[in-house]
Amino acid sequence: QLQLVESGGGLVQPGGSLRLSCAVSGVTSRFHAIGWFRQAPGKEREGVSCISSNGGGTHYADSVKGRFTISRDNAKNTVYLQMNSLKPEDTAVYYCAAAAFGNQAFCTLITGYHYWGQGTQVTVSS
């Protein structure tokens, strides 16, 4: 059983930056890939980025490539999402989730996430 807790959300102006954190607890936390997802009002949830359990594999949605960077510190059991050049369309509740893929260098945003955090609100507005 894993527990995930997101933090770092808030209100930021367009062009600004935020860093989200996902604290993961549980015996096997460092063997799980972590994904970031977001859901805006009236829209379906979408995958944003993921990082493999060993940190060697990452994936980004086209909408955030070049602006967002995912990283993890397994010693601290924490995954980060650095978000730069934020746009109003990035406004959403951001969730982190954990998945156990067989390959420690692999992650995908398509499926496999069975543990979820409660979410943190990110609002990009002037």
Question: Can you describe this structure?
Answer:
The protein has no helices and eleven strands. By secondary structure, the protein is mainly beta. Strands 2, 4, 5, 6, 9, 10 and 11 form a seven-stranded mixed β-sheet that branches. It has a four-stranded antiparallel β-sheet with strand order 1-3-8-7, with no helix packed on it. It starts with a strand and ends with a strand.
Structural key phrases:
126 residues, mainly beta, seven-stranded mixed β-sheet, four-stranded antiparallel β-sheet, 11 strands, 0% helix, 48% strand, globular
- Biggest pleated-sheet summary: 7 strands, mixed
Total number of helices: 0
Poorly predicted runs are: none
Tally of strands: 11
Series of H and E elements: EEEEEEEEEEE
Show the helix and strand layout.
Blueprint: E1 3-7, E2 10-12, E3 18-25, E4 33-39, E5 46-51, E6 58-60, E7 68-73, E8 78-83, E9 92-99, E10 113-116, E11 120-124
Parallel strand pairs: 2-11
Antiparallel strand pairs: 1-3, 3-8, 4-5, 4-9, 5-6, 7-8, 9-10, 9-11
